[in-house]
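S., here's the first fold you wanted:
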Amino acid sequence: MAVLEVGALPDGALEAAAAFHAQVLPQALAELSDPPGAGEDLVLVFPPAPYDHRGWRLAVVQDLARAAAPARVNGVAGDDEAAVAAAVAWLAAAPGVTGQLLAVEPG
């Protein structure tokens, strides 16, 4: 399972979505289509953000999941390394889960 760290994005939801589509989406598409990653599942790791970012993030994850099928695409939002790692491990062991955006917090 490939993990793509999204990194810092602008604070505003519209600006963050635009930056994601310009800077990160090409990397995600390449990860899903170029060998050796072709067919490999992908988890996008987003930094924490206000509630108004959830809509565009979920739409991106769902659209990528549909386009990449049968490979799976999911998203994890959080900045606690242990919580993110646990979510990625759980997703790796859950072969039926795709197109989901999980928010994690320190445990």
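And the second, which I think is the more interesting of the pair:
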Amino acid sequence: MRQRLLFLLLLIPGAICAQHNSIQLADPTIFADGGKYYLYGTGHPQGFLVYESNDLKTWTGPTGAKSGLALKKGDAFGNGGFWAPQVFKYKNSYFMAYTADEQIAIAESSSPQGPFRQKVLKRLSGEGKQIDPYLFFDTDGRIYLYHVRLKEGNRIYVAEMKPDLSDIIPGTARECIYGDQSWENTAQTPWPVTEGPTVVKHNQLYYLIYSANDFRNKDYAVGFATSATPWGPWTKFKGNPIISREKLHVNGTGHGDLFKDKDGKYQYVLHTHVSNEKVSPRKTGLISVLFTGGNKQRPDTLTADTASFRFLDPPEKP
């Protein structure tokens, strides 16, 4: 009977993935430092958990400095809604940009495990609700905050940061993209969603990776746009989405982050729905991505290797 069940599962695309146990963090990000990988994401009401790995396969934790949390409520801005962290190193300190109370804040630590703190508990400047921060450090030394503003939809914006990361430079905020294509709003809602931005510079071209549709929609998916400048204008890839339920056979694929592994190859960490019937708690997965097919007349395409997709195994219980 067991063999027959396994056979039936193999006949159903995505069935094995749906049954697989995994780490359960949404809006995940992986930060590589000192030969280790640190995984953070949405999923705890008091802040952000962190898990560690040496090989992206075996994970330990949570290992945050405060009962598993790298950032804990009370140490930095926010009373709830701790979403979508990004961790990076800048001038010998570690920083976490994150969402709380539907605003963006940046906290600092001496370790990737935290505790991330603010001397003054404050958010960044900006009009209305702002979520999903991603700080991009350009080759000319300028720093840009890509983020989402809730204004007639979830729209992706960019603003230049002050060099000390204390705030954005006033008057620099500019809209990048919004959900104006059919794959980005399959429910045809009056509030189209584009969110979860990540930016990388490749061959002097800027690639903006983002997710579209409401995260509760089974069609939540990932695409990208390109620009010759960090400000835009942005041209969306005609082959979007590059990561979707049609490609991975699992619902709700999106809102992740790009990073390089120890071999110098790009990986994209993301979340999916927990099953075909339920959205949460969302599961954390990993997929390899690469730049392919470019020439003098056409820029490289960002491609996801669907065969490489896998969920991240949870730590073994002691």
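Why I say that: DSSP finds three helices and 20 strands in the chain. The mean pLDDT is 94.

Talk tomorrow,
H.
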